[in-house]
TrEMBL record:
One of its GO terms (biological process) is transmembrane transport. The keyword ATP-binding applies. This is ABC transporter family protein. It comes from Isoptericola jiangsuensis. Residues 10-249 form the ABC transporter domain. InterPro entries: AAA+_ATPase, ABC_transp_ATP-bind, ABC_transporter-like_ATP-bd, ABC_transporter-like_CS, P-loop_NTPase.
Amino acid sequence: MSTSTPSPVLRANGLAAGYGGADVVHGIDLELVAGGAPVGVVGASGSGKSTIVRALAGVVKPTGGHVTWSGRPVSRVGLRDKKRFRAQVRRVAQEGLGTIDPRSTVDRVLGGALTDARRAGTANGATVAELLAHVALEPRFSSRVVGTMSGGEKQRLVLATALATRPAALLLDEPLTAVDPAMRGEVVRRLAETTAADGTAVLLVSHDLELVEHLCPHVHVLAEGTFVASGTLSQVLADPEHPAVQDLAQAAPLAVQRFR
Ligand SMILES: Nc1ncnc2c1ncn2[C@@H]1O[C@H](COP(=O)(O)OP(=O)(O)OP(=O)(O)O)[C@@H](O)[C@H]1O
């Protein structure tokens, strides 16, 4: 067994971040390690989950502490390395299609993502059909115009686009809210396989405890901008010391029953 600990792809140390001069998260310590187990962040609406993801992705600048990418501050990634950073650290946000053109076809969108991956030097010869399979979309979707897809199909397309660059870190912010529970389970199963095979470090932010439980052996509970409990989801829910964990347990009684 190797004694060396792999260094994190992304690390937050005492991270504070917010908007308009007011911090909404503070004192956040988090590590995403290549080949490591996916990490989950759960917590009430407005507790700051998306803000942590934005800070890790370099979209929001820390007001305190540090976010580092392979040891370098994300806030100081220069123009020259921006492309590599964007290919290596992919954020799938809850805000919808992002930069994907709804008038484009799936084939063109995913083909373009694969071209970007080749340019960034991260491609592994994957095809559009393989990317579709990673998110349980059938091959017939390749000719579809993006704007005609259902909400859940679009979310799976966004995820496939992120997987195209074989990112070192994948930051998932409520990635499958519009996907029905049965299909969500299937997508997560495939996602777990793909990211484990590639050694992708995964962070999942979600209200869906079942989704978090399926993917993430380790979770942090966020309350008012700070982590108040950490461990496996069953450990955290079995000992709800903090009111935020009690709220979480009450909001998901079925999930809690299963964990007990
Ligand atoms: N662009 C912004 N400008 C000002 N305030 C913001 C902005 N984005 C988020 N906030 C505020 O920061 C706080 C944390 O928001 P954030 O989106 O990180 O929470 P969240 O835990 O992801 O919530 P949800 O589960 O509802 O998505 C909230 O009070 C929110 O209103």
